[in-house]
């Protein structure tokens, strides 16, 4: 496979056939794949990122956002835990704790909302500290991801396009598909509904847009506000702003 550049567009080819194209934009990357192989997407994304750095653009920004949802109605407890835990996890200027909605309290953090690794770490720490069922859920480019915790232990992990960021062994890719039975036990959702909502595919082109997909997953689980960024959450009635 060969990746060549045509102006601002990168083209992946093999034996004269176009496998896909990618173009950097102000909002991330526009990716079009004729071949759904994960390696094609990865090669194109790497080419765009390398060109961005070479052109002085620094690291390529991918649209990303995420939030943490704890299964409780006790907002005061979560505010106290956030005040204590967040500074231990990473330096963050502000965290928003939303009021309870549908039996869950959402946490939005400046450092975690755009970094899946930070989001996961904070979700695990909050779950371990409270003992609560917790979902760290978000969007990274065209991919929806979540990690479900109980008492700080990982119970389920999901990526809508396993291996999108980097190639994975087949077994690891399978493990990143949702486990509807586990999610049903943790949330009382219907396992069949979870299976129908938490779709996985080899390419984002085979799935609904990420913001639609995260909305349908959240609806089945019972989470609200997964589509919000921190600044959106700041304006929710009853939201508590925790400055660190």
List the defining traits of the structure above.
244 residues, alpha+beta, 2 domains, seven-stranded antiparallel beta sheet, four-stranded antiparallel beta sheet, 8 helices, globular
What is the count of DSSP helices, taking H or I runs of 4+ residues? 8
Largest sheet geometry: 7 strands, antiparallel
Taken together, the total number of domains comes to 2
Total count of strands: 11
Structural features, described:
Helices cover 35% and strands 28% of the residues. The chain folds into two domains: 2-54, no CATH class; 64-243. A seven-stranded antiparallel β-sheet has the order 10-9-8-5-7-6-11, sandwiched between helices. A four-stranded antiparallel β-sheet has the order 1-2-3-4, with helices on one face. The mean pLDDT is 89. The protein is built from eight helices and eleven strands. It is of the alpha+beta class and 244 residues long.
Short overview:
This protein has helices spanning 38-54, 75-89, 116-130, 170-175, 180-187, 191-197, 210-221, 230-234, and strands at 2-6, 9-14, 17-25, 28-33, 64-70, 94-97, 105-109, 133-140, 143-150, 153-159, 240-243. By secondary structure, the protein is of the alpha+beta class.
Please write out the topology:
Elements: E1 2-6, E2 9-14, E3 17-25, E4 28-33, H1 38-54, E5 64-70, H2 75-89, E6 94-97, E7 105-109, H3 116-130, E8 133-140, E9 143-150, E10 153-159, H4 170-175, H5 180-187, H6 191-197, H7 210-221, H8 230-234, E11 240-243
Antiparallel strand pairs: 1-2, 2-3, 3-4, 5-7, 5-8, 6-7, 6-11, 8-9, 9-10
Helix pairs in contact: 2-3, 5-6
